[in-house]
Amino acid sequence: MKDLSNENVIHIKDEKLEYLQFRKLLEYKDVVSHAYALGLDVGFKTTTINQKPATLERLELAKNSYKKLCSSIESDYAHIVQANQSHTDIIKIVDAKINKDEPDFSLAEEGIEDGLITNKKNFMLATTNADCILLLFFDPVKKVIANTHSGWRGTLQRISVKTVQKMIKEFGCHTQDIICCICPSIRKCHFEVDKDVKDMFQNEFCDIEENKFMDIQENKEKTIHITDFIEEKIENTKWNIDTVLINKILLQKEGLKPENIVDSGICSVCNSDIVHSYRMEKKNYNTETAIIELK
Ligand SMILES: [Zn+2]
Fold first, then answer.
1. Whole-structure pTM over 0.85, yes or no?
2. What single-letter DSSP state applies at residue 244?
């Protein structure tokens, strides 16, 4: 059986499920619990904005997945507050739950957000991904946690830095204390883009040396279907972008210590046999979850 353990993460396999934990966060396991699920199905959407509607089966599957994961890390399933993600840079402070005995699965009327922060116990902050980056933040001094979804659009909007800035502004955190753990996501090896997306990154991050985060694949051949019996082969340039590295550089520039930026180093596409990947599963994709809670 595949084992994704490395110097930064431990791959836990119990009889019910598999998940990752960051060694750095386990140093504080008396005050914080966390996990990144592997192969769990928590994909459902309750919003109707550009997203598929929730089906009861998907919702039940998600609930059962969360129950298994929470019981495995000895947390309470009813503590879950899941972000209603929409590729924004909106970060919400969590200080109350709506449902008492059930998770808050961020119903559409509660708004959208791609980051959650709290300094209170008993809120299990949850985000979901299938290739996007999920970031778990923890300040062991101020006892503040955050959980942020930063896909390529969120990365362009610098949501990781905005999360840190909100932890500082709202809870008095200091950048040198903040730990940021980077969950499995699509990596440079598979994040291939066309010129339009490449240009957005080049324009936004002109303060970062671009050869650091971008590779060019010149003259890739592309087949264009013209009629039933004619195809045209054209030269098609593609770029590979390292969104994880961009986030690391931005967080370091913001003042986080390099040793406090802890990367799982795992590509969801390369490991799509055990990690859900949108690019591999296409339209019926399911999602993984990252969860974090103060004890
Ligand atoms: Zn890959």
1. yes
2. H
